[in-house]
Amino acid sequence: MNYKIAIATSDKENIDLHFGKVKALAIFEVNEDDGTFKLLENRQIDFSSIQKVEKSESGCCCDSGFVTALVQIVKDCTYFLVAKIGNRPYRLLQENNINCIEAPYAISEAINKVNAYYVLHKKREVHVF
Fold it and tell me: Is 57 within a domain?
């Protein structure tokens, strides 16, 4: 069986983007049986459809519709890997059953670790941490 992982990357080799800096996501398909994976597609974020609001003093753009847009983009993915994410967007993604993981590693290393976890826990309905 295969599943998808959305990854915040600028170079298709490393998970190197903070949640708030994502402009596109690399979608990988992983074969849970043998751990092989391949890049399926790149999904662009349509910023024209995101409501523009002022950022908070901390610079957070969580209320701008950015989280909502990302939920729609990654809703068919089992995991969403980013280099860093704040508490509020993390919580909003979790509330939408998006399993977001901070994994500032090489993509191959991160996918191998996630697949080992997935195989170990695959009998669970939802993999929310």
Answer: yes
